[in-house]
Amino acid sequence: MKNVLILGASSGMARALGRLLCRDARLILAGNDGDVLNKIAADLELRSNGNKPAVYDFDARNVGSHGIFVNKVAQEVGKIDEVYMFFGIMVDELEAHKHPELAAAMAQINYVGAISILECVALHMEQNRQGLIVGMSSVAGDRGRASNYLYGSTKAGLTAYLSGLRARLAQSGVHVTTIKPGFVDTPMTANLRKGPLTTSSEKAARCILSAAKWRRDTAYVPFFWGLIMFVIIHLPEFLFKKVKF
Questions:
Q1: pTM listed for this prediction
Q2: CA-based Rg of the chain, rounded to a whole angstrom?
Q3: Distance from C-alpha of 177 to C-alpha of 163, rounded to nearest angstrom
Q4: From residue 83, how far is each of 19, 80, 192, 224 by CA, in Å?
Q5: How far apart are CA 14 and CA 209, in angstroms?
Q6: Cα 42 from Cα 33, distance rounded (Å)
Q7: Domains in the chain and their CATH numbers?
Q8: DSSP run (H or E) holding 219
Q9: Which residues are catalytic?
Q10: By mean pLDDT, which of 2-11, 102-111, 187-196 is the weakest?
């Protein structure tokens, strides 16, 4: 049975993914709220008829602990076969304009924390000559929009990082998949207006698993966001500056 590490395991999409994987994988749930993770683990144990996930404390901001974390998981659970990285925050854009430290904190988690832990994971998998890394970026990273360019910039950086990591690990038997979700109904987006393009966490998780199974390089979730972003990316700048979205 493969060992699957889920970073940010309390997020909406991560919970949905765990429910899809719990029967066929040994899950390792990692996050910064142990009480919530233990409840999730208990639920997944019931769903899988006794396949109880392991729970580990993980703080994306504490980059100095990331190498120790990966080594501890590998020693106690075994070789890490797959990693799904879900953690991230989205601060209120207008508040971040007034308080730039909020934007800096978001970048620390969404980008700095992400590259720190994934570099540690990559080294582990590179040594074992096999593995899968699935990183959650966002359609917001494809082009900086006035309404969320601070969040989008952290995801743009992550997308570029995952692309380079994929190229680096290509000869090591390790694959890297970049996931770019559109609007997904999760606790992080609870305060945003829901529209016809909003996707459930369950549907998003199924799309993510499909992309992972087929070792896609990049996957929009759901797929139609690829068409939407193609149009947005190719809008001339003089028009793009006039569009309010």
A1: 0.95
A2: 18
A3: 9
A4: 16, 7, 28, 25
A5: 11
A6: 15
A7: 2-240 (3.40.50.720)
A8: strand 218-221
A9: 151
A10: 187-196
